[in-house]
Amino acid sequence: MPASLDHIHPGTPMGANLIADGAIFRVWAPQALAVYAIGDFNHRVRNDASLLTRDESGHWRGFISGVRDRERYMFYVVGEGSEGLKRDPYARELATPFPSECIVRKTDFPWHESGYVTPAFHEFVLYQLHVGTFFTPNLPHKGGTFLDVARKLPYLTEVGVTALQLMPIQEFQTSFSLGYNGTDYFSPEMDYAVADADLPPYVAKVNGLLDAKGLRRYRPEDLRGEMNQLKALVDLCHLHGLAVILDVVYNHAGGGFDDQSLYFFDRQSSAGGQWNSLYFTDKGHAGGLVFDFAKPEVRDFLIQNATFFLDEYRVDGFRYDQVSVIDRDGAPHGWRFCQDLTATLYAHRPGALNHAEYWDVNPYVVKSPPDGAGFDTTLTDGLRMAIRDVIGNASAPDERPLNMTGLARSLWPEGFQEQWRFVQGPENHDIVYNGREQRIARLGDPANPRSWFARSRARVAIGLSLTAPGIPMLFMGQEFLEDKQWSDDFVSHHDLLLYWAGLDQGDKQMLDHVRFTRELFEVRRHTPGLRGQGFRAVHAHDQNRVLVFHRWVEGEGHDVIVVVHLAPFNRFGYRIGFPGGGEWREVFNSDVYENWVNPGVVGNGGLVVADPQPLHDLGYSAALVLPANSLLVFAR
Predict the structure, then answer these.
(1) Mind listing the pLDDT tens digit for each residue in 431-480?
(2) pLDDT tens-digit profile of 70-110?
(3) How far apart are CA 328 and CA 330, in angstroms?
(4) Tell me, which fold does domain 15-103 have in CATH?
(5) What are the strands, taking DSSP E only, across 286-417?
(6) Spatial distance between the Cα atoms of 514 and 512, rounded to a whole number of angstroms
């Protein structure tokens, strides 16, 4: 007789799940002739007792007694084209080294119930990082891990970001990766985990973080395996007031499938082409294959993946890679999948962020169905390109006009109704990857990325992102003036790793830049107008290299005037319009952070008075001192 159907019901979860004195197994393989669940618990023997039973929808399921936590297993699939082992597409964890067997795992973890609540979307400040290269204290033995990221949480909290956006952490097959070639969607990348033998010093370090907050420590067994180490990172982020956003790839999988992956999962003949591969179409993308969104089971696989990370890992939302590929290469079913995904997640956890990457920018991605895809936010590139354009042109050794008019137009992309619907920033993993564009500091002065020109222009670039409409995003190292491109290959390109040693050794320029970023974050946090819906461009002058914009909270006020000046010399008596008369506090001046505290600071002494002299379509104006390469913020 095949495996028991005890504990099996219409809602039996996919994959391997411990229950009673064993585990239930369920897997989708509609064209398979037979599917066996084999592992430590039955000596990997294929017989009647390990044979699963097929239901009318093509799911094979069964209950096997004696299965224990952390035992290994695989599915053995007999198909029309071949037969052999397959990893469970829903496996929570994989054994090392890769490719490897799946591991049955309990879902328990000793979470600290801190009452953390995901911030409102307009309060988000994203910090994008790559786990394998963000902080690498164990090279050359090993790249960065989840627990290495955890060790930097006090620093990130002090800087002032509110959310970590992790580049994809699902299992990929290569030694190094940006993460966009994953094949095992429910299992965290094993290279991002610390091996059991190397855990003791890590346990001590993360427990030090808990001790600092007077909280219960982790036991060594709590941190065994990549699954629990990712949970510990999320737990510690929440304890430090940080949200966690996962970058997920639902447009395609792969970039290299092995025979035991979900590729041709039910082992159909490959003679029929990629459409016989069960999960995929015949359309390629980024070295992999686009998912077949026409199949309810494929859509369910991806939607369950998202709800799984929300529930089991308590993450705060997702950044969805290349939704435009889902829409176009997944047509005619991709857009409907996006609507199903966002509707399900909104009902499941309304406060979670659903952030889409879509090129070219499409405002309908953040509109509600039936016309829109239902995402909360989308990545935009207009401000990024405009910032990089003016910073790059400012570095030329002449006094050419800068496109401040275009910069003003880019501050609010066309088609968006709410300012928090779009995410912007001058750097991200794609733009500053090795061989592509330069980081802002080097763009500001290609000859010397540590010169005054580079430092001051880098301050303006970050300052624009943090004061402009939209959710700002920084890329790792941007806050401390990192001037090198980056690479996921930390062996061949170890010279491109973040320069943490500079901070540790007290590099004055880096420390001043971190201070600048941190204190501008504080101004943003305590100035409601910088997070409000009200916005207008007040003045843009290409020849003078000046941009002025006004922000406020609709119906409340909290007016703010932001002034950007990219001439390499100081201007005096430069008159701009203000929305109200009287005193305006100069609450931020980027020139202060040049060799903190700048002994030669140029500015307005902390206060200006606007008189009833109309200018720039506003009823009042004031004559300002504009420091060279600077950003000023004025508030009531």
Answers:
(1) 999 999 999 999 999 999 999 999 999 999 999 999 999 999 999 999 99
(2) 999 999 999 999 999 999 999 999 998 888 899 999 999 99
(3) 5
(4) Immunoglobulin-like (2.60.40)
(5) 288-291, 317-320, 353-356, 377-379
(6) 5
Do 291 and 281 form a contact (C-beta atoms < 8 A)?
Answer: yes
pTM value surpassing 0.90: yes
pLDDT in tens, 581-623: 999 999 999 999 999 999 999 999 999 999 999 999 999 999 9
Q: Tell me what the pLDDT averaged over the chain comes to.
A: 97
Q: What span, in angstroms and rounded, lies between the C-alpha atoms of 127 and 164?
A: 5
Collapsing DSSP to helix, strand or coil, 519 comes out as helix
**pLDDT at residue 436, as a whole number:** 98
> pLDDT for 520-578, tens place per residue?
999 999 999 999 999 999 999 999 999 999 999 999 999 999 999 999 999 999 999 99
Q: 531-635: same fold as 15-103?
A: yes
Q: What is the architecture, at CATH level 2, of domain 531-635?
A: Sandwich (2.60)
Residue 302's alpha-carbon distances to 94, 174, 254, 337, 472, in angstroms, are: 19, 22, 14, 9, 28
Phi-psi region of 621 (alpha: psi -120 to 50; beta: other; left: phi over 0): beta
Contact partners, residue 599, CB within 8 Å, separation at least 6: none
Q: How, if at all, do strands 317-320 and 243-248 pair?
A: parallel
- Residue ranges per structural domain of the chain: 15-103, 249-368, 531-635
Cβ atoms of 181 and 256 within 8 Å: the answer is: yes
How open is the CA angle 237-241-247, to the nearest 5 degrees?
50
Q: What are phi and psi of 323, to 5 degrees?
A: -60, -25
CB 529 within 8 A of CB 466: no
